[in-house]
Amino acid sequence: MSGFRATVLTLYPEMFPGALGVSLAGRAMQAGSWSLDAVQIRDFATDRHRTVDDTPAGGGAGMVMRADVLARAIDHAAPAGDARPKLLMSPRGKPLTQARVRELADGPGAVILCGRFEGVDQRLIEARQLEEVSIGDYILSGGEPAALVLLDAVVRLLPGVMGNEESGVQESFENGLLEHPHYTRPAEFEGRTIPEILTSGNHARIAAWRHAESERLTAERRPDLLQPVTK
User: Fold this and answer.
1) Any transmembrane segments, and where (predicted)?
2) I want to staple 82 with a disulfide (CB 3.0 to 4.6 A). Which of 27, 78, 108, 220 is the partner?
3) pTM of the complete model
């Protein structure tokens, strides 16, 4: 039995596993470290046209995904007793953070609903206690690309997926800072050399330099990460 179980509810199951079927995630799937099941939402429609959406109450553009159809799909994917969190990929959701990614990686898996059209009936979100998650302040054509991003971030943190476990804790956002610059051979590239301190062999000074560089880059590029958290 795979440790981390992901179930994705989507109108386009052919989009999965996609990029998750190759590289680290793909090898981990083949090794049984995690599993992925893509469920076609239209299978839970009751009319001959397999309708999953309808016009928005109150008028307006677009269509809204129906609560009754989605409820049947979710209840099929996560019956009573399934402890996995139920996520809805949504631009109005709480921004995905590395801390939340680690929480998911430490859990049993996730049930992920990929929205389409104008969105999902609010009653479904409330009735099934969906956690709305956003991967950024922009709009996608659907939740599928966002689900792929979320799963990629989670799967790489599962035990044994990365060859060097230390890689997962020395990265951007793990300690609230952006990651420091990296260098490797050749020693000189187009007139640019590796900072001398990195070849000094003094590990304490190297660690201090890397931390200082992380702080500098964070202040320049993501000063919001340095702001104190307010409740």
Assistant:
1) none
2) 78
3) 0.90
